[in-house]
Amino acid sequence: MAVIVRRALGLIPRELAVRPRPSETRDCRRCARRYLLSDNVIRLLDFQQKKVALANQMYISKDQYFKTIEEKLKKNVLILKDDLKMLLHLCQMPADVEVAKDVIYRYHAENKNVAFGEFRFGPLFVRLCYELGLEETAEEMVKDQNLTGFFNDSTSFNILMDMLFMKESYERALGVLMEMKNQGIKFNKDTYILAFAICYKLNTVESYRICTLLLEESLTRGNFIPRHAYYFAVALAIKQHDVENARSIYSQIMHTDSNICHNLHVFLLALSGEQQNLISTLEAAIGSSVSKFVKKVSFAHDVMAVVRESMENNSELQSECEDICEILQKSGQITALSLDEMLCHTPAGRKPLNPLLDQRKISRRTLQPLRSTLLSE
User: Fold this and answer.
1) Are 297 and 262 in contact (CB under 8 A)?
2) Segments in 8-153 forming alpha helices (H)
3) 3-state class of 58 per DSSP?
4) DSSP letter string over 339-359?
5) What is the per-residue DSSP string for 187-252?
6) DSSP code of 299?
7) How far is CA 268 from the centre of its chain?
8) Alpha-carbon span 174 to 204, nearest angstrom
9) Where does residue 166 rank: exposed (0-12), middle (13-18), buried (19+ CB within 10 A)?
10) Backbone CA torsion sign across 175, 190, 180, 232
11) Coil, helix or strand for 281?
12) Helices 301-310 and 259-272: crossing angle, nearest 10°?
């Protein structure tokens, strides 16, 4: 059993791995991405489109506008909200961002006591850093005590943690998470996914302690934890050889009909030595593929390798397990993705069923609900 736990979510011996077909490899590798936030959260395309639109509306060149802003800085002229907004949309290179940083410090010093509900520049600046690959600049600004209150939203921290996660800078991402917690920024569902994913990637005793603490705190306060966050918590517990806690966390998942849930369930059965239940679960997965209208359950190749290894001490069940693996292989239910790649796959952003329903429902001028005859009908 110790050997199985040691190899869990790690390198699987080549002779034990169930080899996927070449076509499956190409398809799965194409769709596996190493970051976690959907386009609906990053909104990079929207940001870039707005940059182009604002640039086309300008009556002076970008260089002239930057000179005007720099003159305001030198003469201590008040920086307006629209000045900073336009400046951030005009930045095209790291040198431009350096000017924007100076303007942000001035603007924040002049508007610390601004009324609640004012335009939030934090996500705008972090998206700019995301576009230009300036995660170090974003990290420096978010952690600067002189800017406390400027990045007072979860979106700024989430996008930054996602950037660092992409660069595999997990220690720094954890530092941003701790900074977010210290500043009292409320965690949302994306924050929990990123937090548990970062802890999972670090896979240390300390990161496991932090993950467990965050999970306990959120449950005590009644905060919503998305299913994807639970996945990472279970996987981290497995990595830390804490199968009992992994099973406990898994039991808190409300809906277990996803592919990752099936993989984690099979994984836990293999690690717990529940061989008969494991065989029954795999047989049920084969049965689900009878109808072409029913989505097939897919298993990661490294999970199936652990399953096969767990059967080595029982020749009768081992033979039955091999037969099941062969059927799953032929039906395309063993994917080229590893469990780690399944966990880190970016969810597709949700699109509205009807574009009309996604339009603004509150007037920007009167702050009253917009009334539409078409929508009311």
Assistant:
1) yes
2) 22-31, 39-42, 44-57, 62-74, 81-90, 94-110, 122-132, 135-143
3) coil
4) HHHHHTPPPPPP--SSGGGGS
5) P-HHHHHHHHHHHHHH-SHHHHHHHHHHHHHHHHHT----HHHHHHHHHHHHHTT-HHHHHHHHTT
6) E
7) 24
8) 12
9) middle
10) negative
11) helix
12) 20
Q: How far apart are the first and last CA of the chain?
A: 63
Please compute Rg for the chain using Cα positions.
25
Asked if 347 and 38 touch (Cβ cutoff 8 Å), the reply is: yes
- Residue recorded with tokens 């951030």: 88
Q: Are 203 and 340 in contact (CB under 8 A)?
A: no
Q: What is the pLDDT along the chain (377 residues), one digit of tens a residue?
A: 445 555 555 534 333 444 344 444 344 333 334 468 888 889 999 999 999 998 888 888 999 999 999 999 999 999 999 999 999 999 999 999 999 999 999 999 988 766 445 678 999 999 999 999 999 999 999 999 999 989 999 999 999 999 999 999 999 999 999 999 999 999 999 999 999 999 999 999 999 999 999 999 999 999 999 999 999 999 999 999 999 999 999 999 999 999 999 999 999 999 999 999 999 999 988 865 556 667 789 999 999 999 999 998 888 899 999 999 999 999 889 999 999 999 998 766 555 545 454 555 555 555 556 554 444 33
Q: How far apart are CA 178 and CA 198, in angstroms?
A: 12
pTM of the model: 0.82
**Residue 227 backbone class (left: φ over 0; alpha: ψ -120 to 50; beta: rest):** alpha
- Classify burial at 368, counting beta carbons within 10 Å of its beta carbon; exposed 0-12, middle 13-18, buried 19 or more: exposed
